[in-house]
Amino acid sequence: MSTVTRADPATPAGAARAALKEKRPLGDRSFQILALACGLLVLVILVLIAVSTTSQASSWFAAQGLKIFTNNWDPAANQFGALAFIYGTAITAVIALIMAVPVSIGIALLLTEVVPYRWSRPIVYVIDLLAVVPSVVWGLWGIIVFAPWIQHIYASIASGVKGIPVLDSLFGSPTSGASFFTAGIILAFMITPIVTSLSREVIATVPQIDREGAYALGATRWEMIRGAVWPHSQGGVVGAVLLGLGRAMGETIAVALVIGSSATITSHLFAPGYNMAAVIANQFGEATGEFRAALMGIGVLLFAFTIIINVIARAVVERSARRKRGA
Amino acid sequence: MAAIAGQQQTDLREPKGWRRTSNRIVTWLMVLAFVVVLIPLGFVLVTTVAKGISIISWQFLTADIPPNVVPANIGGMGPAIVGTIEITALATIMAVPLGILGAIYLNEYGGKNWLAALIGFFSDVMTGVPSIIMGLFIFAIWVLHFGFSGFAGALALGCLMLPIVIRSTYEMLRLVPNALREGSYALGATKARVTMTVVLPAAIGGIVSGAMLAVARAVGETAPLLFTILTVTTVNKNVFSGPNTSLPSQIFANANSPFVGAQARGWGAALTLIVIAFVLMIVARFITARFSRFSR
Amino acid sequence: MEQSEQDVATSTQLPKPQVQATASPDTFDTGTHIFDVDKVSCYYSSFRAVTDVSLKIHENEITAFIGPSGCGKTTVLRTLNRMNDLIPGAHVEGDIRYRGASLYAKEVSPIAVRRRIGMVFQKPNPFPKSIYDNVAYGPRINGERNKAKLNEIVERSLRGAALWDEVKDRLKASGLGLSGGQAQRLCIARTLAVEPDVVLMDEPCSALDPIATGAIEDLMKEIKSRYTIVIVTHNMQQATRVSDRTAFYSVLRNEESDTRTGVLVEYGRTQQIFEDPHDPRTQAYVTGRMG
Predict the structure, then answer these.
(1) Taking CA atoms, what residue in B is nearest to C119?
(2) By the CB < 8 Å criterion, does B175 face chain A?
(3) How far apart are CA B228 and CA B239, in angstroms?
(4) What value of ipTM does the predicted structure carry?
(5) Among the four A87, B54, B77, B255, which has the fewest Cβ within 10 Å?
(6) Do A22 and C109 touch (CB under 8 A)?
(7) B33–A284 C-beta distance less than 8 A
């Protein structure tokens, strides 16, 4: 388009009318369509994931039906009941949460309530460093350094609780460096950054005026947190914890290296085990036919579980944020 | 100022007893939480550096990958480094522009409508999808038809990076003051022009930094590559056909090996990987600090 | 509360605008009408922000919109270059003609409108680009690529905005580094660079100190021979200093729905508005008893 010319006053109406009548440039409309398409890509990919993996696993679902939820995993004998892996995913995630959640909330509170802003930056850097360590490095360290070391600790605990009713079934032998519990510990390290940073975001939105109100009544910091901060951020922190749960369920490589690769359901946390993500990682390479379909199906289940948990988590976080804004 | 008979003196010291103690305990617990996190981080980093540094050398970074049996001072991780660079670069080229455009839709065009809300919500949900699922997905729709390749791995990594780039770009676009957009509109710019010539340049620091963090994440991912590149030990300069390898894939392969040489090479690769990821993260933070300024 | 303010506050009837530009004998002159605003009401969704405004803007004059806050003067200004289109839910009833052509007709492109009718904002909003790139922005998006031509346009616009001497040695410096008055002149230069027909100004000096304000006012008087200017101002002295005609807006409060609507009270030559206002509300405002 050439440069704009001044409207010629000699022929005002016609010139102006003609000049104003420009069609929306093609480039502008195409850009909008392109942007929309990229946005839709997210939804398209999610749907494609669901459809493609399910169709690959369909022979497993069809052949096994509800037997997929039995603890009967023996590929050589064509048995593909996956309960052991579902159990393993649940157990390791729970162990990870029990350890990570108090630590994460503690650090989040440390950053928002205790530490002055200037000192908070180094702490945040440490959390960022923790987040950036790749899963495979955690796994390498876990299996080569951590597992052999903690094996001794497991052994002493096991001999210590020998005979005691509940504790023995949880912490008694068999023990192994590569076990449910080790996987849980490594998972705890890995999910701490996300639970911490999201909790911190949530807690930071508590209005300063509420904190001051509590302090003005002569509350100690702990009392202020209990009375003013916690009620406000409860919902959001629950959302953060759920996100950590989702992450713990899906984390693959570190778990694949340190969980022990044994498809059993046992209450002994120090015993080797397996979980959904780990079995796919370890076995998919050599699997064919129905074995492969079974692993793909386990992937479908994992996808479904994590999507549900993430949807709930995000909805919870959004609702608590909305309530805050409205309040 | 005589005190009324019978009334106690005002006690301005800290609350005594359980209130003070419980407050102190909680504060120390919070500090303990941080320490608890420092310890494993320190151990991992120290171990990786200690075990890896002795094997790192120019030869290590460029030599071919030998069989696992071979002792530590022979061979290196050259193909894995090449593979990581190829595959991650390809994934970045695909995911970052698409992610930026998606975020542009969300912030500049979508506004508060239901579709934008839906896309934004599921984009966040997508960041929680396990990375191995991305690998299975690309296996199902691509590898089964076109075989293993670095490109397939890049597709899987791209799916991983896309929602991360969308979210971080969206946050940056939101920060651009509306006054800048109005100034551009008032000069007769179309919405596309306003976005490309004023909004994007104003947010570019944060966008680049967000993209680098996504790359830092992708560089360390193993699971999406497992069934898409079919880890091999030779260099494959053609990223579009034939199996490939990457640093995390090699580390995973070596971690289970009983051979000392393989393990040592694994540590060297792990150190290289951590350095790459850290450098990306530090540069990203630096860019954020220096270039995210819109007004004085 | 003064008597006249109470009149405005409690009146629930929509008053007829007391004086139309066409009704006053002073305005039978030969100047062309750049804008013909005809019974325009502005809505934000269902909220009526301004009601029933009619006036004509004359070419090569400075027209001032004055009035208390919330009376809709900025809203009306923004309808003149269709900037209100950017606000979701905003729409206009009535017609606005620019040089005889309807601005809100279906086939009219807002982009084309804004290339001819530029706007300077209350708070200077230079782009985070160099001074040169700020001024060259408009011509560039209109397709001008020739370096020499751009250099010439940039110099001419900066001279036109009385900023050239101060920045000619640092054209590559960031536009964000200028003082308030300089930044506002940069925004004016930026607007002049696309050679508009009309320049709208929304309280251009309210964020500036008196010296910078004086510089902008001198600038306005100097460029009015080449442009038509409409300025919103809350500073009555400024209106008397620079404008040829003045439109006084006020607020009408609706008791039942508890809403406020802007309304045009009086419009005429500036001298007449301030020395011999016909409407008692105008008189109350300009003599300082209200607003």
Answers:
(1) B186
(2) no
(3) 12
(4) 0.89
(5) B54
(6) yes
(7) no
